[in-house]
Design goal:
heterodimer; A: Rossmann fold; Alpha-Beta Plaits; 11 helices; B: mainly alpha; binds adenosine-5'-diphosphate; binds magnesium ion; ATP binding (chain A); ATP hydrolysis activity (chain A); ATP-binding (chain A); ABC_transporter-like_ATP-bd (chain A)
């Protein structure tokens, strides 16, 4: 089975307010899928429905082929969930918190102990095993949350805003953990509004806005769809002239060319055309001092996209 | 989704609602027994039990040998300014029970542990009933310990062992005390579902207790007077009014518990409520009832307490099922 999460016209209404609106989402086995959208977009509501923790108003969900409203125990046994606010019993130790979860999952003691050790190892908390959670930093709690998930050896992990509130170092460490999990073949669905961090780990991204999924695809695909350009090439040349700029504009697939200052020209393109740009520059009599390229960041796509959406709406 | 569809899903849902129940019970009981809150309450009840029983023993010593039920007297005798042990239990039991329950659900919510726990392969049923059972077992443990302590004090202080009749009556009274705690426990837990703030839930539970302790009897009397007024001064009228008042006061768990205590700890009590002279025909006044007769007397009270507990639990359950769990 390659499609591990499938929703069909999934809808959640709170009174008249539509929090999730006919959502059709497919997550494939082994991928990291990012649910991106501003606050209030409906990401958390979607996640809660996938886990069977909130009932959908209409539509259907299949998780690993099971229906979370009818077979919640099976679904919850195979799906790990890291909520947007991860809390632990502060007066208990890391181990005591984890053994409670292991017992709720029906694991026998020795097996539970084995899994707890290996989970703590994976998230780098072994030496904190017998410390009260009240002494943990936000980042450590977040990692303990991941350890808790690993205990049930899930096929799918769902994380709601996992990097929110972490310092840059903590966020980086956390993204590293996500990569490790992915390498083990676990499917990951994560939600966020912090885009540049998520861009670094997601295979595919769904842009979420007012309960609707507006766009789905890889970061590169989204760039092309939204902007028609996903690559930015910077040309360093000591003598920027209007002729050179004109010549560069003629390069196929160059979308936008402008001089940033007297020595730098920016070329926006739909694909990697560094070679053509260099050739054109030299043919036009320019000197090439340097050439660099930046793939479009999701941040920009996102900002631009939602700007456009607002614009259309207005 | 219609109520019918919802019911259908409930019926079709997989697995047992009790999956994970014992894990919850074990964790919650460990929490209760190690918490500072429980230490304080244990100390409080230890002091009151020790104090009142000691005072009662001073009075009883004189009548050892002549009285068949001195162990029951340990619970019922009072000496100014101290009330008797059952007087104290009347408000210590609700206090302890409320202390065990008022932050059951909202506590998980505020610590942000609720969604993490409910994401495990268990139903909400298991969490709620696990917390209730853990509270009930803790009550049972605490009161059993107190009972044992009192037996111990009696053995040492009075130098006589309790007879089987006394042991039987006190065990029934222990059971009734635990169930009396149960109803306040479930009430506090219900408020912990309704109110996000534990302090609010505690206050609501205490207010309910206060209402039944202080105001309900007055209210019952006023209600009876207005619903069954005495117009012509007939005996039947007075009786009808008094019976209604009694029925109304029995809505209060405090009344039920007090009557249970009276019937179990005073073997000479042959009836709870009104006794007309002809009903006593053939009875020898002052002779104690056998235990099973006393138990029959309190049976409706005991089942009433348990039924009310189950009802409140069902209400808490429905409220909890409907609750959004997100922070
Ligand atoms: N229990 C609720 N009652 C009413 N509205 C709600 C409830 N829960 C969430 N919402 C609304 O649904 C929308 C989506 O919320 P949410 O899924 O939490 O968004 P996100 O996680 O993307 O920030 C928000 O506008 C929120 O106000
Ligand atoms: Mg959210």
């Amino acid at each position: 089975m390659s499609e591990v999460i499938v929703t069909k016209d999934l809808t959640k209404k709170y009174g008249d307010f539509v929090a999730v609106d006919h959502l059709n989402l497919i997550v494939h086995k082994g991928e990291v899928f990012g649910l991106l959208g501003p606050n209030g977009a409906g990401k958390t509501t979607t996640i809660l429905m996938i886990l069977g923790l909130t009932e959908p108003t209409s539509g259907s969900i299949r998780v690993l082929g099971f229906d979370p409203t009818r077979q919640p125990l099976t679904v919850k046994a195979h799906v790990g969930y890291l909520p947007d606010q991860v809390g632990f019993y502060d007066e208990l130790t890391a181990y005591e918190n984890l053994i409670y979860i292991a017992k709720l999952n029906g694991l026998p003691r020795e097996e539970a102990d084995r899994r707890i050790e290996s989970a703590l190892q994976k998230v780098n908390l072994v030496e904190m095993r017998d410390k009260a959670v009240s002494t943990f930093s936000r980042g450590m709690r977040q990692r303990l949350g991941v350890a808790e998930i690993l205990i049930k050896q899930p096929q799918i992990i769902i994380m709601d805003e996992p990097t929110q509130g972490l310092d840059p170092e903590g966020a980086r460490e956390f993204l590293e953990i996500i990569r490790t999990l992915r390498a083990e073949g676990i499917t990951i669905l994560l939600s966020s509004h912090l885009l540049h961090q998520v861009q670094a780990v997601c295979d595919r991204v769904g842009l979420f806005h007012r309960g609707k999924m507006m766009l789905v695809g890889t970061v590169d695909e989204l760039g092309r769809k939204v902007l028609g350009k996903a690559f930015r090439i910077y040309v360093e040349t000591p003598n920027t002239t209007p002729e050179i700029i004109e010549a560069l504009k003629q390069v196929p697939e160059a979308v936008n060319v402008r001089a940033l200052n007297t020595t730098t020209i920016e070329v926006e393109a739909t694909s990697d055309i560094r070679h053509e740009v260099a050739k054109t520059l030299i043919t036009a009599g320019g000197q090439l001092r340097g050439l660099s390229m930046e793939a479009q960041s999701l941040d920009e796509i996102y900002a631009q996209y939602f700007q456009e959406v607002e614009h259309v709406r207005a | 989704m219609s109520a019918l569809e919802r019911a259908e899903i409930q019926r079709l849902r997989e697995g047992s609602p009790w999956t994970g129940l014992w894990a919850v019970v074990a964790k919650e009981m460990a929490d209760h027994l190690t918490s500072a809150r429980m230490r304080i309450l244990e100390l409080l009840i230890l002091l009151t039990a020790g104090g009142t029983v000691y005072v009662a023993m001073q009075q009883i010593r004189a009548s050892i040998g002549s009285d068949r039920f001195i162990y029951l007297k340990l619970f019922t005798l009072s000496q100014d300014p101290l009330p008797s042990l059952i007087g104290f239990l009347g408000f210590l039991v609700p206090l302890i029970a409320i202390a065990l329950g008022f932050d059951a659900v909202n506590g998980e919510f505020n610590r942000k542990t609720l969604s993490r726990i409910l994401a495990q392969p268990i139903y909400r049923d298991a969490l709620l009933s696990g917390k209730f059972l853990a509270g009930l077992f803790t009550l049972a443990l605490v009161f059993s310990a107190i009972w044992l302590l009192i037996f111990g004090m009696g053995l040492i202080g009075l130098g006589v062992a309790p007879n089987s009749e006394e042991v039987g009556r006190l065990l029934w009274f222990l059971l009734a005390t635990i169930f009396y705690g149960g109803i306040w426990l479930v009430l506090a837990q219900m408020f912990s579902v309704v109110f996000r703030q534990p302090a609010t839930a505690a206050l609501a539970a205490i207010a309910t207790w206060l209402f039944f302790t202080v105001f309900w009897n007055i209210l019952a009397s006023l209600l009876a007077q207005s619903l069954r007024p005495i117009q012509y001064g007939f005996l039947q009228e007075a009786l009808a009014q008094a019976e209604l008042e009694l029925a109304l006061t029995r809505i209060s768990p405090n009344t039920l518990y007090a009557e249970i205590a009276i019937a179990l700890l005073n073997p000479t009590v042959r009836s709870l409520g009104f006794v007309l002279p002809f009903q006593l025909e053939g009875a020898i006044l002052g002779t104690p009832l056998p235990l099973h007769q006393s138990v029959l007397l309190i049976w409706p009270h005991l089942t009433g307490l348990i039924a009310a507990t189950i009802l409140l639990f069902a209400l808490a359950y429905v409220l909890f099922q409907r609750q959004e769990i997100r922070a």
